[in-house]
Design a protein that fits this description.
Layout (H helix, E strand, L loop, with lengths): L18 H6 L7 E6 L4 E6 L7 H13 L3 E5 L4 E5 L11 H9 L3 E2 L18 E5 L9 E6 L8 H18 L2
Antiparallel strand pairs: 1-2, 3-4, 3-7, 5-6, 6-7
């Protein structure tokens, strides 16, 4: 379905999604809708309900973020599960490159010039992928992604910290 129209926004920033669109996408009250925005555009995307991460996984990401200056993402083979300092919505679909990395379950380092992004509308390229292998309670293998801030190169110590975090998450999930 393709649809375009002009919508008015009220004082509180709300818009109404036209009935034709709601019916075509089978949107119902309470459905999760992802919003992405850049300087010129707003994109709304229907999302399936996301699986909330348990407190332990959030704590791993908090600790890594406190020690590694960058953007951190945790993803499955299909979607983003959690983010730290990366303005991407939970449940956004990952790019084909990320899907393949999760399937291969091997660590990979990139340069910013490689232009590998976690989501199709991503503005920040990744510089490191760390696998969290095996079947998990979140489905298949997972991936821990690092994106630099201002093209900052991660140090060996920062990469080692991320690798240890991926290993700790693997043990935590499989216990």
């Amino acid at each position: 379905m393709e649809y375009a129209t002009l919508l008015n926004m009220d004082r509180q920033g709300r818009i109404v999604i036209p009935i034709q669109v709601r019916k075509a996408l089978k949107l119902e009250e309470g459905d999760l809708i992802a919003l992405e925005a850049n300087e010129k555009n707003i994109l709304l995307r229907k999302q399936t309900a996301y699986i909330p991460l348990d407190a332990g996984l959030k704590e791993f990401l908090d600790i890594l973020h406190a020690n590694v200056p960058g953007r951190i993402l945790l993803c499955s083979e299909t979607k983003i599960l959690a983010v730290k300092n990366y303005h991407a919505a939970l449940n956004m679909p990952v790019t084909e490159t990320i899907r393949q990395l999760v399937q291969k379950e091997t660590m990979h380092l990139f340069s910013v010039q490689d232009g590998v992004y976690p989501i199709t509308s991503g503005r920040y390229p990744i510089s490191a992928f760390f696998p969290i292998p095996g079947e998990t309670r979140y489905g298949s293998a997972l991936g821990l992604l690092l994106c630099p801030i201002n093209e900052h190169e991660f140090s060996e110590m920062e990469l080692g910290c991320a690798k240890m975090t991926a290993t700790a998450i693997t043990r935590y999930i499989n216990q």
